[in-house]
Amino acid sequence: MSLPSSVDVAIIGAGAAGLGAAHALKHSGLSAIVLEARDRVGGRGHTIMASPDVTFDLGCGWLHSAEQNSFVAIAEQMNFEIDRTLPPWRERAYGKSFPPDERADFFRALEEFFQRIEDAAQSGRDNPASLYLEKGNRWNPMIDAVSSYINGCETDRLSILDFDAYQDSNTNWRVRRGYGALMASYGVSLPLAFNCEVTLIDHSGKRLRIETSQGTLTADKAIVTVPTNLIAQQTIRFHPALPDKVDAAANLPLGLADKVVLALDEPGELPKDGNLRGATMRTEMGTYHLRPFGQPCIEGFFGGRFAQALEDAGDGAIAAQSIDEIVSFLGNDYRRRIRPLKESRWAHDPFARGSYSHALPGHTGKRAVLAAPVDGRLFFAGEATSPHFFSTAHGARDSGERAAREVTAETDNK
Ligand SMILES: Cc1cc2nc3c(=O)[nH]c(=O)nc-3n(C[C@H](O)[C@H](O)[C@H](O)COP(=O)(O)OP(=O)(O)OC[C@H]3O[C@@H](n4cnc5c(N)ncnc54)[C@H](O)[C@@H]3O)c2cc1C
After folding, report:
1. 12 lines ligand 1 (CB under 6 A)
2. What is the distance in A from the centroid of ligand 1 to the CA of 26?
3. I need a labelling partner for 9 at 20 to 30 A (CA). Which of 54, 68, 159, 296 fits?
4. Ligand 1 binding pocket mutation candidate from 252, 351, 370, 398 (most atoms within 8 A of CB)
5. To which H or E segment does residue 409 belong?
6. Closest ligand 1 atom to Cα of 61
7. In this model, does residue 298 exceed pLDDT 90?
8. To which H or E segment does residue 118 belong?
9. Cα angle value 377/378/384 (rounded, 5°)
10. What is the mean pLDDT of residues 129-142?
11. How far is Cα 289 from Cα 295, in angstroms, rounded to an integer?
12. 223 close to ligand 1 (CB < 6 Angstrom)
């Protein structure tokens, strides 16, 4: 769609939040357009065919808290098959690299750590989660690795109040054709302008003036859904400036999680939907999903500072690390059986600059600050604004719907 010169509502970003907002405004009587910097919808949801027989989600893959996940009903409505196989993170371990008794001991230490955080959060006082690691516990480095997968950061950068506010039902499903593919279908039929990067929202006048890489348009209202790192680093600017939003975004940084998919020849003995990792006693470790959906591949997952170091080492470093680690667990024979197909580099993605948000210690209240409307004209959505489902795709989508409701309520009041 070409850029109109004027619209009632401009939605910035066609990720889950922007799509949720656009759907909610469809029958409102307001004209709306979604302005998207990329040439596709989905943002941090992106499914690719990594090879003719391997579907791979570079970003979100799991329908977290599935019973409360609004994308489940959307998937069903759109005839996207949902796979209810539970994740292999815990029980379905493969090989000798993490023997069952060690694994049980590790999960006991992890659960005790989570419990200490939950107890401490009752006081309402915030602290870094690292304070609740048991001194000298041999599993601490691996607990930090798990934190880097879940939160995108290690425990020293994680607010316990924020972590405690997340609502996890522990039911995680998947979309067989890909979460990103579901979002792409969800975006069909919405008014979208691609390759349209918004650089400035001028709210000094009667109407909003929005500067983009495709030209300027005016709007009565805008819903901003871009990732926090872009607001914090002011790649999108406001005039007059909004220092509270910049501060809130800076204290809700996107942590980092990266994924890699490796083709697997002769899948043979490796179980469908198995898990592989080592009792490596390091934070610098990957976790591997064997043959997801039975496909001939292995997916690797890395988080936090280690993911950043691997990204900084250049394209291919994540795959190389994964292959070395898998070979160390399964034997040299695997070096000829696995080969790189694709890896993500979310920190280097100019329109994400990270993977998902966490609150820095002392800043859990910043989610509400970021979400608050300004002057009844600027509205904010995106995963980081979700009070209980931040860092997820459904949390993002629901936040877009919430912002759209705020827009229509404001319009009805006039
Ligand atoms: C590796 C990885 C694994 C994940 N796993 C899961 C998972 O299993 N389950 C889950 O629920 N979530 C997961 N997530 C998180 C989930 O993907 C995100 O929380 C969610 O997709 C964020 O949606 P959003 O709309 O808030 O932001 P985004 O998807 O980032 O959308 C924002 C959009 O704004 C666009 N944009 C940016 N700047 C501009 C600009 N200046 N002008 C115009 N457009 C702009 C971007 O291109 C983007 O399309 C994962 C994320 C990653 C990276």
Report:
1. yes
2. 22
3. 68
4. 351
5. helix 393-413
6. 8
7. yes
8. helix 100-121
9. 150
10. 97
11. 11
12. no
**How much is the average pLDDT of 121-143?**
97
C-alpha distance from residue 151 to each of 59, 110, 156, 404 (Å): 14, 15, 11, 27
pLDDT number for residue 86: 86
What's the chain's average pLDDT? 96
Q: Is there a contact between 291 and 264 (Cβ–Cβ < 8 Å)?
A: yes
pLDDT (tens digit, 9 = 90+) per residue, 211-223? 999 999 999 999 9
Q: In a mutational test of the pocket of ligand 1, which residue from 149, 226, 367 has the highest number of ligand atoms less than 8 Å from its CB?
A: 226
Give the pair of three-digit tokens for residue 11.
Answer: 């939605």
Residues present in the chain in total: 414
Say what angle helices 179-187 and 70-77 make with each other, to 10 degrees. 70
Q: Which amino acid is at 337?
A: R
Locus of tokens 């980081």: 384
74 — pLDDT class (breaks 50, 70, 90): very high
- pLDDT (tens digit, 9 = 90+) per residue, 379-395? 999 999 999 999 999 99
Q: Is the CB of 396 under 6 A from ligand 1?
A: yes
pLDDT tens-place string over residues 9-57: 999 999 999 999 999 999 999 999 999 999 999 999 999 999 999 999 9
Q: Coil, strand or helix: which one is 223? A: strand
Cα separation, 330 vs 97, whole angstroms: 8
Query: Is residue 351 within 6 Å of ligand 1 at its C-beta?
Result: yes
152 CB within 6 A, ligand 1: no
More confident residue, 268 or 254: 254
Q: What is the DSSP string of 26-70?
A: TTSS--EEEE-SSSSS-TT--EEEEETTEEEESS--EETTGGG-H
pLDDT, one tens digit per residue, over 6-15 is: 999 999 999 9
The structure's pTM equals 0.98
pLDDT band at 208 (very low <50, low <70, confident <90, very high): very high
**Percent of the chain whose predicted confidence (pLDDT) is above 90:** 93
Neighbouring CB atoms inside 10 A of 256's CB total 27
- Candidates 60, 169, 199: which one to mutate for ligand 1, based on the most atoms within 8 Å of Cβ? 60
Ligand 1 within 6 A of CB of 44? yes
State if residue 183 touches ligand 1 by the CB under 6 angstroms criterion.
no
Which residue is listed with tokens 């040299």?
Answer: 332
Instruction: Encode 150-214 in three state secondary structure.
Output: HCCCCHHHCEHHHHHHCCCCCCCEEECCCHHHHHHHHHCCCCEECCCCEEEEECCCCCEEEEECC
